[in-house]
Amino acid sequence: MKEHTGLFLHTMLLTKKTFEDVAIWKQEVDNYSEEADILLVGNKCDSMDDRAIPKEEGRLKAEKMKIPFIETSAKNDINVDEAVLQLVTPIVERQFPGAVETKSPAPPAPSGAPARRSCVIS
């Protein structure tokens, strides 16, 4: 795993078990990887009624492990792109200084078409 520079530690916000195991996974990454960028991702943030992990608990665990935290929902497209950019952008910047240029989101597309976002890597 030494050649990997970025890693998502992914946990479901619906069960305590996967959330508790995150610290074990983080330790494994630290044992086998040199200076990997890690992002703790709490998935299924759209399931508010079923969630077992409050947002603050996720944030505090990430803070304790000294890694960033983001909540996502693939189902509702919440923070999915943001999570990828949050992990990948600093890696690309380190490997290719000046290569990443982020742009503001495009204005909403007419007639309900999905909005476009962009990240330029040259």
From TrEMBL:
Give the organism the record lists. Paramoeba aestuarina
The signal peptide, as residue positions, is none
- Residue ranges of region Disordered? 97-122
Tell me which Pfam families the record gives. Answer: Ras
Question: Which key words are in the record?
Answer: GTP-binding, Nucleotide-binding
Which InterPro entries did the record assign? P-loop_NTPase, Small_GTPase, Small_GTPase_Rab
The protein in question is named: Uncharacterized protein
Family statement: Belongs to the small GTPase superfamily. Rab family.
Q: Listed GO molecular functions?
A: GTP binding; GTPase activity
Q: Does the keyword GTP-binding apply?
A: yes
Q: Where is the composition biased (Low complexity)?
A: 112-122
Q: State whether keyword Transport applies.
A: no
